[in-house]
Amino acid sequence: MGQQLFLLDLPKDILITLPDYLHDIEDYKNLTSTCRAFRACLSSPSDKTILRLAAAATNIFFRPSPHFLVTAVARQLGNWARLSTSNEQVLAQAFQSGIEAVLDLALQHCSLSMERIRQLHKLRFSIINPVTNRIDQCIGEQWYATPNFWHGGVDDAYTIDADVPETFFYLAMYGEFFAPDADILLGTGNTDADRALSVETRLEFVKYCIPDIDPLRRVYATGPYIGFDKPKQGTNVSSNHIGLRHLLESSRWRPDWTLVRQSVGPDFGPDDSDDENEDDLDSLPWKQFLWSEIAVCQGLEGLGMMLNTDAGDFRVELYALRDRIEALEREPERVVVGRNHTYRLPSLYRDLGICSSGYVGGT
Fold it and tell me: What domain of life is recorded for the organism (predicted)?
């Protein structure tokens, strides 16, 4: 009889390739927990492999799926798209096929480390759950549970059917993809990229990755709109746009962000006073509108600012953005789409207004 061989008898240069053949991140975690030898040998798999393994378990460890995992790599994917117009076209095409297609593209061009996964796990408790709870108080079940809801219990009663956890990640994902464009277009020097993503690419994201069925809006029958009148099974396409716009306008949401901004500097207004809570967003002076939009859309970690009503780690960046907005002598160029407009600068509120208005074609 030949000598019996065990897995650990294999050469180390073979053992270190084992993660490439595992099914998902749970298999990797279990294997590295088997013994010290495996832990030492498999301690440094490629970050691309880790992302693949995480994607295979996105329904288990990264819910809502695939929103959480796409948000985790969105900034990387956006920066890849900024490298060239051809890359941006590929990203825009992925947007058109829905958020699942965006994750497929990320698997080709992005990576995820175990350290980042551990950070994401901590963010679940420090930012994601608390901010999601605040969103629920603005547009979710807690909001609807307000006594006398339809008779003065809230100042913004409306019929909204939006998934609250997904709403959190739509807001975070928009920031991760497009926040660097504010730095590029305002010239703050906080990014190495030299070109911003186009408004058209942003609108493709809003239309197809934040799906919302509107009988007036024209979209391709792709991604969440396959069949159009029969939304893709398991995809919430009821009123995501309305839910997000209502959130951004909510009197429960905006005061915390007012405090965040004022921790950096005074708000902009006709007399530099803070009257924001008395008016809707469309009535704000254009500098104040831009400042409000940019502050909210700083990405996943950026949403944590509202919990402490302090810019925290984002203070230096927000200082630079506010100073640049203050220095603007005229309103940035408006990009007109149909009867509505948005800005070259990231503006989720205006982008949502365009995409849910019925005046955006399938381009």
Answer: Eukaryota
C-alpha 342/C-alpha 352 separation (Å) is 9
Query: Does the global pTM surpass 0.90?
Result: no
Tell which residue, 360, 150, 134, 350, has the closest CA to residue 251.
134
How far apart are the C-alpha atoms of 224 and 165, rounded to whole Å? 18
**Alpha carbons 312 and 320: distance in angstroms, whole number:** 14
Tokens, residue 117: 């996964």
DSSP 8-state secondary structure symbol assigned to residue 155: S
| Distance (Å, whole) CA 358 – CA 338 | 9
Q: Scan for tokens 């609108």, then name that residue.
A: 203
Check: CB of residue 249 under 8 Å from CB of residue 277.
no
Closest by Cα among 209, 200, 277 to 241: 209
Q: With CA atoms as reference, report the closest residue to 302 among 349, 354, 264.
A: 264
CB 52 within 8 A of CB 82: no
